[in-house]
Amino acid sequence: MKHTLSCAAAILSFTISTSGWTACLEPGASRVQLQVLGSGGPRASGGRASASYLVWIDGIGRILVDAGGGTKDPFHQTGANFDDIDLVALSHLHPDHSAELPALLWPDGGRTRVSGPTAGDVFPSIEQFLNSLFGSGGAFEILAPRVELETITVDVTNAEPIEIYREGDVLVRGVGVPHGSVPTIGYRVDVGGSSIAFASDQNGSNPSFAELAKDVDILVVHFGGPENSTGMIAALHAKPSVWGQMGATANARQVLVSHLNIPSAEELETRLGFLRENYTGLVTVAEDLMCLDVR
Ligand SMILES: [Zn+2]
Ligand SMILES: [Zn+2]
């Protein structure tokens, strides 16, 4: 079975037959597609893996955005090949965005680029992070001979977006976004006339990301707290209404809501209601293995 439909169908077919794994791109579908590998958050997420997304270009999974816990199996279920990954773009080093990288590289290793933030607060730089995993004396030194990672460090204090990767008509840019004191990057991927922006975890208080995301086809946002959140949660995560404002300011064609560890379906609907008060475009709730045509 070839498939672009629901993750439920994909998972069902996976349980009964290995021939049913979900590949994102079907012949004749749009040239660029976005596949959700993980739509959960850091806490209990109802079986969802933590944050991770795969951008398919001309039938090849080439750009992996985040690698949160539990995304190894969804990655393999898509039929993607790590050898095809040109860039692993990590938004920040919270485990629900980065912890699965060693598992994705195990046991075969891999050769790719990895982008991530500069150091800050209690967080290492992306270079220190990768060395602590795969370098000499690192936790997974067993992989050291098998991995070749080109590190791309994004200075999150830079006011302007930074070009991270460009090849042919593929362009990836990133800019620092406010996520408490956690160095964090929001990304934009352009492929020809198709575009996706990954807001990651952020409180939405810096307009530079909405500017980077201007006129995107899909804006991926992360629910992290309720509309009445305060204190630490409010410093870390945008309220649903703020995500709606961002979608409207950016003039995004579609908003994909992800990072879901929400206590109930009713609470999810409540948060979506606040988002929709400020954004009138298409709103999609992410599911693991969901595949979206970008354009
Ligand atoms: Zn998170
Ligand atoms: Zn986070």
Walk me through the structure.
The chain is of the alpha/beta class and 295 residues long. 24% of the residues lie in helices and 27% in strands. The protein has 9 helices and 14 strands. It has helices at residues 7-16, 72-77, 95-98, 101-105, 126-134, 208-212, 231-236, 240-250, 265-278, and strands at 32-38, 52-57, 60-65, 87-89, 110-117, 147-154, 162-167, 170-176, 185-191, 194-198, 218-222, 254-258, 282-285, 291-293. α8 (240-250) packs parallel to α9 (265-278). The structure holds zinc ion (2 copies). One zinc ion binds at residues 41-42, 51, 94, 96-97, 201, 259. One zinc ion binds next to α3.
- Biggest sheet statistics: 7 strands, mixed
Category from helices, strands and their pairing = alpha/beta
- Heterogens: zinc ion
List the strand order in the largest sheet.
6-5-4-3-2-1-14
The number of helical elements comes to 9
Round the Cα radius of gyration to an integer and report it. 18 Å
Low-confidence stretches: 1-21
Indicate the CATH class: Alpha Beta
The CATH superfamily is known as: Ribonuclease Z/Hydroxyacylglutathione hydrolase-like
Question: What share of the residues does DSSP label as strand, in percent?
Answer: 25-35%
Strand count: 14
From the 3D structure, determine the CATH topology.
Answer: Metallo-beta-lactamase, Chain A
Tell me the span between the first and last alpha carbons.
Answer: 23 Å
What CATH architecture do you see?
4-Layer Sandwich
**Rounded mean pLDDT score:** 92
Helical fraction:
10-25%
Approximate shape: globular
